[in-house]
Amino acid sequence: MTVPGRRSSTFSRLLRHGFTDPSAAERLLDSTELMPVRSDPVLLEALGATADPDQALLGLVRLLEAQPGPTARRELLDTLIAAKPLRDRLLGVLGASVALADHLARHPRDWEALVMYEPRDLHPGVEEFERGLAEAADPVSLRVAYRRCLLSIAARDVCGTTDVAETAAELADLATATLRAALAIARAAAPEDAAACRLAVIAMGKCGGHELNYVSDVDVIFVGEATDGADEGKALRSATKLASHMMRVCSETTVEGSIWPVDANLRPEGRNGPLVRTLSSHLAYYQRWAKTWEFQALLKARPVAGDIELGEEYVTALEPLVWKAAERENFVVDVQKMRRRVVENIPAAEIDRELKLGPGGLRDVEFAVQLLQLVHGRADTSLRSGTTLDALQALAAGGYVGREDAVQLDDAYRFLRSMEHRIQLYRLRRTHLVPEDEADQRRIGRSLGLRVDPVAELNREWKRHGSVVRRLHEKLFYRPLLDAVAQLAPGEARLSPKAARERLVALGYGDPAAALRHLEALASGVTRKAAIQRTLLPVLLGWFADSADPDAGLLNFRKVSDALGKTPWYLRLLRDEGAAAENLARVLSAGRLAPDLLMRAPEAVALLGDGDGGGLEPREREHLEQEILAAVGRAQGATQAVTAARGVRRRELFRTAAADIVGSYGTETQPAEADQGALVDRVGGAISDLTAATLAGTLRAVVRDGWGDELPTRFAVIGMGRFGGHELGYGSDADVVLVHEPRDGVSEQEASEAANKVVSEMRRLLQLPSADPPLLIDADLRPEGKSGPLVRTLKSYEAYYRRWSLVWESQALLRAEPVAGDEELGRAFIELIDPLRYPAQGLADDAVREIRRLKARMESERLPRGADPKLHTKLGPGGLSDVEWTVQLLQLRHGWAEPGLRTTRTRAALSAAHAAGLISGEDAEILDEAWVLATRVRNAVMLVRGRAGDTFPSDGREVAAVGRYLGYADGHVGDMLDAYRRTARRARGVVETLFYGA
User: Fold this and answer.
1) How far apart are CA 50 and CA 424, in angstroms?
2) SS3 of 348, please?
3) Could you give the CA distance from residue 497 to residue 502 in angstroms, rounded to a whole number?
4) What percent of the chain has pLDDT over 70?
5) d(Cα 991, Cα 984) in Å, to the nearest integer?
6) Is 281 exposed, middle or buried (0-12, 13-18, 19+ CB in 10 A)?
7) Whole-model pTM?
8) If we measure between CA atoms, which residue out of 685, 695, 761, 760 comes closest to residue 724?
9) What does the mean pLDDT of the chain come to?
10) Nearest to 93 by CA among 63, 126, 124
11) What is the DSSP letter of 951?
């Protein structure tokens, strides 16, 4: 009979002790198995201390039910109540792992493995685990013995007897003992093979580093040699059989499940290479073919089973190669690129729950530590540990990592590894994903000692530690460089000058001594400026290192800081606006043009921010013209007015270049622009609009200075070539033709003199030596070229075109568009030339032949001597000229009938030709791709070198910078050039068909 109130009292007690289903717990407590101890307060207290009291109670009942008889049950209960160590261990395991609860239910006497509580049981090593596995003679008994040992490791772990590092070391030692036992089983099954060879098992990864998880692939490499007098080929076959059998013993599923997969894919050539190699074969591979990541993996190599002497020889032979890896070209870039690739391959739905591989995860710490080991371990042998936390401690002791940073990373790594252990321990499954279920998170939180609000506390701590890792893992590499040149407190360890230079060289700095001087100048002192720069520089150094010229990035940053360092908004901008610092780093290290534009007026750095004062979006032509005309109106005299206009032009050129660089490189929060054509159109449109606005302002300044409000003649500027096509590049001149029309009552002579004087003065003022880049006005496309008048009246143009116009002039007029001056006169000029550029019924056959003849002559005569035609972006096969002449021939032949072809823009005309059925979609795409790529290369050359060029630079750093702009990582210049040749070759094939009619 139930006493009134008892249920509610027990129910409340169970809730207070952490049970989530008190009703089910009450039924279990009332079970026959627990009747003798049901009211014992010790049991309830112990259950309440576990990660999951409900699960622990259920596991205990199952274990009692599995006992062979009442005597065994009574023995277990008596020991459980009397012995606190057993009680804590057993219930702790049952509350944390359903997989080990299942094991105990299948093997009900294994609880006795938790009874012993002697000093040697606290921290067992390989020998103790080997004794625990000694009686295992087959895969099934090995699994049972393995889990019995695992039971004791988990018990010490959940009770806090061992910390996370000690637990990971014990798991690695158990894996070592298991590999030895599995190899013994394989040897016993094939004694002849065992006698024919020496086989060493080298642990890699976390097992090799003595930091294994509960459930993880055990990475290994096999080394084999013949025994004395044996044939090497036969010995390797025998060793391969033994290695394969050993792997199956551990990996195959039996009635007792599997242990863990043994993974040999870190071996030379991966899964395509032989499973077992001789030592000399390993050595030859690593000397000739190994990639950077393979040397990084060897940091953790450790002989664990088989012929240990042979394993030691393997480690000794390869060790010198490991510590030379940092001398390899692009070493840091390769390691960081591999880390980024890992993150990119994480499914989007999992990245926020990925504990190991995601941003701020375990792998960030491991990669950063290994990178520093490889750079500095060459000279400092104290850093050569395969264990992450030991290596981190050694790095801090040597001054290679800031002590405070090391402490924070150590804490974060321990917490994240503890989470990983608890997640895997539950079902003994290999996973690194934080579960979404609240009950799972509650269990994990309680197992880590978070008892007030386990779910909220767990997520808060997880996010906090992940944030620490994200913040520090890049800074870890750069912060000590500042400490090396800063004043530290007495006793603080710092990088030696030699170590600092080593690190800078590894990062890609060509002149580490100069880099250290810049760092000292930027970070020294007690001013607010120095303090903020010390905070910014670790991140900036990383972004500089991601460019083709880190030295230039750092030098340019010093110049900008020297110019603006006392300006309050500058450092506040970099510190507070997320994008500004990274944008600045990209711009300063991408080449010469953008930094040169910035240095002439450093306040333009404000454009790089997120806020209202910044923004890299190109401005509308109308707004540009309004600003320039307003500046001209405020100026005293034409010279001052045009100087103001050129200042606006310089600032807007910087805005365009910066936006182009940031869009091409991408940032940490915004990937690079995928649509290359959009980048080209944005640059071409922005610079063309800016040039038109500058000419409009200059025209206004010259007219006002010489004639007041009105020129004696109406005057219009017609853009030609790339200017008229809205396709100007950074180094383009302004191709124009100039037209005027005398006002009523003004003689032609007076009007002509005024128009010529305007043009002459505009050209002079726009080329005056100054801090602003000149703008060259090129009128060579006018009738009669350089021999003809600089400016003509509309009637003069009409007379010339009617009598003397050649077919090439009609072709040039396809790009004509009014850009400045009298709008009505500009429209009249366009009406005049439309019949010429879009001739009725198209071009006659002889005109087509003439265009083809001109193109062929240009190809043979105008290509610079010594230039590689296949890499010449303008005149080479498949280059700009090929594409543009092909499109323009289509416009001349069909523009009269197809309105879409009546455009000055190459890409728009190409699209219209496809829409009209004049060119196939595939051919149009090929030509468009080639034109966009050639234009991007020309823009890149100007950005990198600061001067125009039509072919790839010959200097290694410059061509690498062009590659980075085009999206190629360091070391892939050859891929870039191959891609250009391939794209141009395909385009030339289309040109041969469409233009030459081949």
Assistant:
1) 17
2) coil
3) 9
4) 96
5) 10
6) middle
7) 0.73
8) 685
9) 91
10) 63
11) B
Q: How confident is the model at residue 613 (pLDDT cuts 50, 70, 90)?
A: very low
Number of C-alpha atoms within 13 angstroms, CB side, residue 698?
31
Q: Inter-axis angle of helices 53-66 and 84-96, to 10 degrees?
A: 110
Tokens at 252, concatenated: 């195959």
Task: Report whether 378 contacts 499 (CB < 8 A).
Answer: no
Residue 363, token pair as written in the block: 């792998």
* Whether the predicted pLDDT of 822 surpasses 70: yes
Structure tokens at 469: 């890792």
**Which residues 6+ apart lie within 8 Å of 914 measured at CB?**
920, 921, 924
Q: Which amino acid is at 551?
A: D
Beta bridge partners of 257: 254
SS (H, E, C) 236-282: HHHHHHHHHHHHHHHHCCECCECCCCEECCCCCCHHHCCCEECHHHH
Over the Cα atoms of the chain, what is R_g? Answer: 38
Angle at the Cα of 588 (from 584 to 593), degrees rounded to 5?
Answer: 125
pLDDT digits (tens, 9 = 90+) for 924-962: 999 999 999 999 999 999 999 999 999 999 998 899 999
Grouping H, G, I as helix, E, B as strand and the rest as coil, residue 819 is strand
| 241 has a pLDDT exceeding 80 | yes
How many Cα atoms are found within 13 Å in the side-chain-facing hemisphere of 281?
17
Confidence of residue 611 (pLDDT cuts 50, 70, 90): very low
SS3 101: helix
Q: For 368-388, what is the mean pLDDT?
A: 90
Q: How far apart are CA 610 and CA 572, in angstroms?
A: 12
414 half-sphere exposure, CB direction, 13 A CA radius: 16
Owner of token pair 């009134």: 4
Count CB-CB contacts under 10 A for residue 459.
Answer: 15
pLDDT of residue 142: 97
User: Which 8-state DSSP code applies to residue 555?
Assistant: H
Q: Which helix (H) or strand (E) holds 226?
A: strand 218-226
Q: How do residues 475-531 score in pLDDT, each as one tens digit?
A: 776 767 766 665 545 555 667 888 888 888 888 888 999 999 998 888 887 777 787
